[in-house]
Amino acid sequence: MLLILTLSGYLVSEEHNKNVCSEPNPESICTPKNTCGSATAPCTVDIKRTAESAAVTPDIPGAKSNTPFCVKTGTTMIWKSMSKNTGFVVDFGPSASFEPAGAAIIGGSDRSASVVMKKPGCYKFSAGACVSGAIYGMCASVDTELIVVGSGN
Questions:
Q1: Average pLDDT, stretch 21-43?
Q2: Whether residue 100 has a cis bond before it, omega within 30° of 0
């Protein structure tokens, strides 16, 4: 019985973490432990194809893949893949914190892509990763969230 209660509590907390943009104050989850980069230091995000899906992992000590994370306005985000022969597309949809809004971020293991986050807000995005040369299931995608907070926060 204890195992069932523990597991259900874990699943509820996981579900909560995946929908922070639907919360009234998503920026309230931002702490130094889940904030990447700064106005003077870039935030590097690794995108890779995993056995089951895709993974988005910011360069934050102890960061877990595909969990919401925070950056401050003015932060340069470097999107790249450290996996060999991997290409990626990151799509924030029509509204994004960077310009031009609506543009996809495209790169790969041989080419990183950079954008500067300008507008505070909570943004849902999709990241797809493909491994070249694979025959079956070479591409996968994942949806996650990014909270951009004002540099004074």
A1: 93
A2: yes
